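Incident review: delayed structure delivery

Summary: a single-chain prediction request sat in the queue longer than the usual turnaround. Root cause was a stuck worker, restarted by the on-call engineer. No data loss occurred. The affected request and its eventual output are reproduced below so the record is complete for anyone auditing the incident later.

Affected input:
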Amino acid sequence: MKNNSLMVFLMLLCSVLYSQEKKWTLEECVNYALENNLSVKQSELDLELTDIERRDALGNFIPSVNAQATNAWNSGLTQNVTTGILQNQTVRNFSAGVTAGITLFDGLRNFKQLQRAKMSKLAGEYSLEKMKDDITLFVADAYLQVLFNKQNLEIIQSQNEVSLEQLERTTDLVDAGVLPMGDLLEIKATIADEEQRIILAENQIQISLINLAQILGIRDYKNFNIAERDYGVFGSEVLNNSVQEVVERAREERSEIKIAQANMDLAAQDVELSKGAYLPSLGAFFNYNTRESGQERVIGFEADPQDPFREIGVVRETEQIVVAPNSIAALGDPLPFFDQLSRNDGFSYGFQLSIPILNGFATRNQVKRSEVGVKRAEYRLEQAKQDLEANVYQAYTDAKGSFKAYEAALVAAEAQAKAFEYASERFDVGLTNAFDFSQAKIRYENTQREALRAKYDYIFKLKVVELYFGIPVSELKF
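Output delivered after worker restart:
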């Protein structure tokens, strides 16, 4: 018992340590989200419903079989099922039957319904694919935001370390009378501001981690963290294509167009289904039934002891009354249950033809509604094409612009790095004051942050263009 308890404890401890040490890569986050995100799961349920719709359509080709059974007690003035006479009684009657029916022809609606179910499944697959693409972008955006916040914190911390070194050096120079006290106060103010920004940066990291965890469907916010690796700029060769080439590729590959096209096909199939109601329908049926009763059965006839004879006529010439024996049914115990079922069974079969003649214009109106649905689907398809083209142009332009901004940010960061190095050297020898040095350091820090922001902004916008170009999620390069 103690060994089992120790094993459980060790397993729980390992689980806790693993959860604390686990750091998620972007690929792991994307894969986890595609399996566990609630929006993806809902799209998968929608796809599962299309499978049920398909089975419903297949079920229309299968005969329907229904069985029924009734066991009832009738009390009062009821007909005696054995004699046919109404009498006050309490009797039990049992009946059972099986009915089978099949549709032989219904204006080909069964076949068209099956075709529609297949189209609906295809549309569901496209919707699931689009949802996965959207979730991938959400995860990538949230993940890159966490990376930006982490590296932004590193920038502030590195600058804070420089400030602390300058504080020590400035203190010695002030004590020696080389620098004024104002320079020392300026350095201290800068350090206080940096410490405040470090706290804000740490909070931003936690907020962005929680946002990413929510997208993934992870509730253990405390132990959730990502791998701190530097993602490079990959896949820029897609921008070597013209924007029109990206648009044409997107029209062929993107799920938005496929979904709109599938919905238009569904609308056209609905028109055919509606028109099927104009045609006659033919069905066949077969019924088997039997019954059993607790009523006494007739086993023969015997003379009525109270009225043994009954008058049946009069001889006209002699006016002599003619009589005959008055017999009554002799009743006995009912036959056994299964004997009655075998004796009282019967069956019926036949065909049923239904010809639509007038139904208040219901069929005609339904056809018209379906035709309106086709027009609406055509407009939505055209709108989807226009929206896709606009989105591709926007994404392509944004990617191009963000790349130029990234290059400019790198040049600015490099220039400010040299300017800060020069300012540090001048400050160390007392040729500049603490205020000018702090301003140079702030400008350097801002250019570092802007270069970092431009980098991740470009990476994300580049991935958007790659998805529009038809590159699968699994092949995106980070």
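Verification: The first strand starts at residue 64 and ends at 79.
Action items: add queue-age alerting; document worker restart procedure.
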